[in-house]
Specification:
The chain has 55 residues and is mostly helical. It has one helix at 3-35.
Length: 55
């Protein structure tokens, strides 16, 4: 394996890892918002506030 090939493989692996971490974070944020149904605003009022103060 040449040095150029190793460099490309390392950069590709790093980019794949960063993409995987972003996908994981997005899934965790989505799960956090959808699991707390009391914190999700149900009406389309102009002044949207959470249902509970802890949200």
């Amino acid at each position: 394996m040449t040095a150029r090939m190793q460099k490309r493989l390392a950069i590709g692996g790093a980019l794949a890892l960063v993409a995987l971490l972003f996908a994981y974070k997005a899934a965790m944020v989505s799960a956090a918002f959808t699991s707390q149904t009391a914190c999700v605003a149900v009406d389309d009022s102009p002044v949207a506030r959470p249902a509970r103060r802890a949200c």
